[in-house]
């Protein structure tokens, strides 16, 4: 068959197929020029069922060895309440350990007279930031003993120093408060939707019976059109936040780079709603790995 005839047939098939209202156009289509008489069409559509199967690992920390990677992580420090009236003093040493293939973040009662605050803990920031992809963190939460801890695995917009919070955006991949055992929460914050005015967009409490006893995978599938939150497997979607139709930086700040944070807060406006039981300390969250996959 001559090339012109082949193009004509393909054009008729394409126009006929697009007449159906049930067919959604892909976000982007690249037509590769034919070699000999073959036409190859490459479609990368985040809404396709197999899209994330093609994601490849671009960055990870497996927490092997005995020290935390200075190339991957930095510490935030201080006892300023962190915008939530939290009680811990974050410090760069004494509350983290890398051993037996996991990172341990531990909140403790403060026994150091040279450090302010009733409790100490750690808050880690990744030095690398990312836009879009499959982000997954495998972790086990502190053994449940009572109220007062607030562990989180989350992300903030890399422009936070210039834009401030909440305009920078926040993605809570996993949040847990110990007065709600066996449950986790998935939430996004933006200028239009955030907890300071009660408009955050959240999954609410998602039951996960073994969250304190076993490791689980907490992850997101993040594209230009949505953020999907899952547990253990990418098919096990628990919550979806779709890009608003009339999106602005106020309600969709999720088209820029974000970095990771991992921490255990003590008390605070949410974690301390039912008080802080001193008998629960030390409280340790273990992280097996953090991985970022992207579609090329």
From TrEMBL:
Keyword Signal: yes
UniProt-listed GO biological process terms: carbohydrate metabolic process
Protein's UniProt keywords contain Signal: yes
Gene3D superfamilies according to UniProt: 2.60.120.200
Signal peptide (from-to): 1-23
Family matches, as InterPro entries: Beta-glucanase-like, ConA-like_dom_sf, Glycosyl_Hydrlase_16
Stretches assigned to the GH16 domain: 50-296
Coiled coil stretches, renumbered: none
Family, similarity comment: Belongs to the glycosyl hydrolase 16 family.
Record-linked PANTHER family: GLYCOSIDE HYDROLASE FAMILY 16 PROTEIN, GLYCOSYL HYDROLASE-RELATED
Protein name in the entry: Beta-glucanase, GH16 family
Organism: Maribacter aquivivus
């Amino acid at each position: 068959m001559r090339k012109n005839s082949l193009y004509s047939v393909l054009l008729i098939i394409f126009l006929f197929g697009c007449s159906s209202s049930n067919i959604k156009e892909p976000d982007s289509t690249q037509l590769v020029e034919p070699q000999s008489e073959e036409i190859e069409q490459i479609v990368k559509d985040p809404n396709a069922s197999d899209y994330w199967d093609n994601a490849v690992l671009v960055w990870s920390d497996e927490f092997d060895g005995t020290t935390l990677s200075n190339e991957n992580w930095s510490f935030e420090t201080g006892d300023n309440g962190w915008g939530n009236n939290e009680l811990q003093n974050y410090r760069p040493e004494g509350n983290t350990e890398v051993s037996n293939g996991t990172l341990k973040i531990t909140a403790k009662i403060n026994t150091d007279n040279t450090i302010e605050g009733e409790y100490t803990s750690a808050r880690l920031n990744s030095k690398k930031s990312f836009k879009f992809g499959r982000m997954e963190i495998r972790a086990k939460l502190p053994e449940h003993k009572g109220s007062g801890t607030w562990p989180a695995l989350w992300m903030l917009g890399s422009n936070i120093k210039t834009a401030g919070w909440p305009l920078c955006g926040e993605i809570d991949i996993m949040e847990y408060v110990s007065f709600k055992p066996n449950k986790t929460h998935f939430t996004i914050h933006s200028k239009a939707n955030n907890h300071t005015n009660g408009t955050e967009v959240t999954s609410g409490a998602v039951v996960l019976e073994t969250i304190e006893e076993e490791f689980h995978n907490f992850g997101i599938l993040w594209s230009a059109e949505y953020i999907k939150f899952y547990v253990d497997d990418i098919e096990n979607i628990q919550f979806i936040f779709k890009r608003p139709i009339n999106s602005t930086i106020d309600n969709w700040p999720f088209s820029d780079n974000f970095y990771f944070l991992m921490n255990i807060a003590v008390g605070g406006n949410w974690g301390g709603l039912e008080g802080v039981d001193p008998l629960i300390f030390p409280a340790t969250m273990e992280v097996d790995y953090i991985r970022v996959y992207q579609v090329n």
